[in-house]
């Protein structure tokens, strides 16, 4: 740790700092223009290994626990991703872009949480914070990728002319 603090101050800073980092980054990303999150970019592009989202169900049984994760975007007047509200292609494209925004926000939260290493003691608390940063964001990252893969499949089905 770079700051020498009492245990009480470390607890207080963690209790206030960690939620502030999570919510602050979430708020910031809901305010960024959706156009900044291109679903076709390398980061957000679907991968063959994702099998249209199937890999996330096979490996992680995502359907069993995805309902337990909060969607913070509506807290900040952002795009709600909890339920599919429409099957209109324009809405689905917007939803897909929003999963990119959500994924980017969770990538940003990992180093954001690591800011707590400034006041948390080394090495034990530092290891705990690294594990926490990954554990608190990986399920959300997996959910964003799963949802986007499923939405892409739905959109393809709607846009593909029937023969």
What do these coordinates show?
This protein has 163 residues and is mainly alpha-helical. The chain has one domain. 60% of the residues lie in helices and 0% in strands. It contains five helices and no strands. α1 (7-31) packs antiparallel against α4 and α4 runs antiparallel to α5. The termini are far apart.
In short:
The protein is an all-alpha fold and 163 residues long.
List the keywords:
single chain, 163 residues, mainly alpha, 0% strand, elongated
Describe the protein's topology:
Layout: H1 7-31, H2 54-60, H3 62-65, H4 89-113, H5 124-159
Strand content: under 5%
Poorly predicted residue ranges: none
The biggest beta sheet is recorded as: none
The rough form would be described as elongated
Helix content: 55-70%
Please provide the ordered H/E string of secondary-structure elements: HHHHH
Number of strands: 0
Structural domain count:
1
Gap between N and C termini: 64 Å
Radius of gyration: 18 Å
Mean pLDDT: 92
Contiguous helical run count:
5
- Helix vs. strand class: mainly alpha
């Amino acid at each position: 740790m770079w700051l020498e603090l009492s245990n009480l101050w470390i607890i207080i800073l963690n209790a206030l700092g960690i939620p502030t980092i999570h919510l602050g980054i979430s708020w910031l990303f809901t305010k960024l223009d959706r156009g900044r999150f291109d679903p076709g970019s390398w980061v957000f592009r679907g991968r063959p290994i994702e099998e249209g989202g199937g890999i996330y169900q096979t490996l992680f049984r995502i359907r069993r626990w995805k309902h337990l994760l909060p969607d913070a975007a509506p807290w900040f007047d952002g795009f709600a991703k909890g339920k599919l509200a429409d099957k209109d292609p324009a809405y689905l494209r917007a939803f897909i872009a929003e999963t990119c925004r959500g994924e980017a926000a969770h990538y940003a939260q990992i180093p954001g949480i690591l800011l707590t290493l400034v006041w948390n003691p080394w090495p034990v608390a530092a290891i705990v914070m690294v594990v926490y940063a990954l554990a608190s964001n990986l399920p959300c990252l997996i959910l964003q990728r799963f949802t986007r893969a499923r939405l892409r499949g739905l959109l393809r089905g709607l846009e593909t002319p029937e023969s």
